[in-house]
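## retry 2 of 3
previous attempt timed out at serialization; input unchanged, resubmitting
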Amino acid sequence: MPKPTIGLALSSGGARGAAHIGALRVLEENGILPDVIAGTSMGAYVGAAYAAGVPLDDLEAEWRSASFLRAVKTLLPTIPWSGWTSGAEIVRTLRRAFGDRTFRDLDHPFAAVATDLESGAPYVITDGSLVDAVRASLSVPGLFTPVWLNDRLLIDGGVSDPLPIDVVQSMGADVSIAVDVLVDPGEVHMSGLPYLGTKERRLDIVKTARVDEAIAHKYHPSVFAVLFQMSTVFQRRLCDLALVATPPTVHIRPDFTADPPSYSHVGCGIDAGAEAARRALPALQRVLAAVD
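## retry succeeded, writing output
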């Protein structure tokens, strides 16, 4: 029986994308090497680097060197106002990782998933510049400016296909491994300004403000908190629908509840990804043994 084609789908998830590195390391240590890879947003970055032959040690060192100041540097405002920042710093980071590589230079077939802003459909990129493709897949709406590529205006792939299981399956994967690092809305600690109850006004001036015990738990979240949670909700919903419509052979879902990673603290994310991959190993090895 011919060797089964192993496909790896890497989800979006921001700083949690560090977990992809830990999962890849455990798979590699156990001789499970993907034949085809698809990634969305941060999953596209990690997947492209792996497909390009960037050693996991180098990739992990790059992530572990992240800091708050480096994160701030990527978010300097830009004009025109189609995104908070132009993404120029992101492009410099991608160029350091990939140089002038194109998809033809990769060790494994790879697909980066973006979203066509005009049609709303996922846009799968499998040719051209690796830097341009990953930059498009990383274009978080409102944060980074959209990218014109192949005559399409593209934004973050997480908007339309946050966990591209369907893409690796369409690339010929017999066994599909999905690494899902998306945030669960219930994990987000929401907060904001105190919610004021009964107010007594005189000449439109608040004279007294009394917080009723019945509403003491309420608050006014910031617009950024609302937008972030909105994105969290719809990406999680899209991912859950994909898991039903195109179920992967093995679903790797790291647990971040004890120590959620951030861009200045990613080591815990790498460790969580490795631990989740170890938990999934027995099931994955059984599947591979059955089809070998």
